[in-house]
Write a structure and sequence with these properties.
By secondary structure, the chain is mainly alpha-helical. The longest helix is centred in the C-terminal third of the chain and has 42 residues. The chain is rod-shaped, with a radius of gyration of 22 Å.
Length: 84
C-alpha cells in the first residue's frame, strides 16, 4: 500500500508541477523571454506523471490480488453458519 500512496503522490506532484510551469510560461511570454527550457521541463513532468500512472495501475492490481487472497484466507478460517 505504501507504493500505491507514493505513486499517487508522484502523480499529484506532476500535475502541480505542470500547472506551475504553465503559469511560468505565460509570465515569460509576456516578458518576451525564451520558453524553450520550460517546455522541456513540462515534457519531463508529463513523463513523470505517465510513469506514476503506470506504477499506480500495477500497484492497484497488486493490492486487488492481496485483498482477494485475504478474503479467501479469512473465508476458509470462518466456519459456515450451519457448522457452529
Amino acid at each position: 500500500m505504501t507504493t500505491l500512496q507514493l505513486s499517487l503522490g508522484e502523480h499529484q506532484d506532476s500535475v502541480i508541477g505542470r500547472e506551475q510551469l504553465r503559469a511560468l510560461r505565460r509570465d515569460a511570454e509576456l516578458c518576451r523571454e525564451d520558453t524553450f527550457t520550460l517546455g522541456i521541463l513540462y515534457q519531463r513532468e508529463i513523463d513523470n506523471g505517465d510513469r506514476a500512472i503506470g506504477n499506480l495501475v500495477r500497484e492497484w492490481h497488486r493490492a486487488e490480488r492481496a485483498c482477494r487472497a485475504f478474503r479467501e484466507h479469512t473465508r476458509n478460517l470462518t466456519p459456515e453458519v450451519g457448522e457452529r
